[in-house]
């Protein structure tokens, strides 16, 4: 092992090998004063916690294409004006979370029940209440997660 575990040296040939990192998009879709959040199967179901939509980037796909595809697959919503916000390394499963915001081009939810437990539009007021730990209808991810920062940036119109 070298570089704090970031590389492994082959004992036969001496070459360095670096672990794979998979790109994942995570996106807050909005239509003005509402944002689209969801619960994926298994992780958040049976809670009031909703998060940004996310998924792996396919081979040969741009970030913008991945955002459009994932949002369509999970929520049936078309998006436009995808903007990069920030990124976060995520150790399991060796991912780089690529945080974005996007505008909704359509608003009628057609959720995929195979991928999601629930997808909803939330008002800016509901989101701000949740960020301020008030209200019971919505909980957002903790501050350690990029989803929290994407949601907060939208709620307070920070750089959007």
Molecular structure report:
This protein starts with 7 loop residues before the first strand and ends in a 5-residue tail after the last helix. Strands 3, 4, 5, 6, 7 and 8 form a six-stranded mixed sheet that branches. The protein is built from three helices and eight strands. The protein has one domain: Nucleoside Triphosphate Pyrophosphohydrolase (Alpha-Beta Complex), CATH 3.90.79. The protein has 160 residues and is an alpha+beta fold.
Outline of this structure?
The protein has 160 residues and is of the alpha+beta class. Helices cover 19% and strands 34% of the residues.
Give me the CATH architecture, please.
Alpha-Beta Complex
CATH class membership:
Alpha Beta
How many domain regions?
1
Instruction: Give the helices and strands as they follow along the chain.
Output: EEEEEHEEEHH
């Amino acid at each position: 092992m070298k570089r704090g575990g970031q590389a492994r040296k082959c004992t036969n040939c001496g070459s360095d090998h670096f672990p794979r990192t998979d790109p994942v998009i995570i996106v807050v879709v909005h239509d003005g004063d509402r944002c689209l959040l969801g619960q994926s199967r298994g992780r958040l179901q049976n809670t009031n916690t909703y998060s940004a939509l996310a998924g792996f980037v396919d081979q040969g796909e741009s970030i913008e294409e991945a955002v459009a595809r994932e949002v369509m697959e999970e929520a049936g919503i078309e998006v436009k004006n995808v903007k990069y916000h920030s990124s976060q390394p995520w150790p399991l499963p060796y991912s780089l979370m690529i945080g974005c915001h996007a505008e909704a081009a359509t608003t009628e939810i057609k959720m995929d029940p195979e991928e999601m437990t629930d997808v909803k539009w939330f008002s800016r007021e509901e989101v701000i209440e949740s960020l301020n730990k008030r209200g019971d209808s919505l909980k957002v991810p903790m501050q350690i997660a990029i989803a929290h920062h994407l949601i907060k940036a939208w709620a307070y119109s920070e750089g959007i």
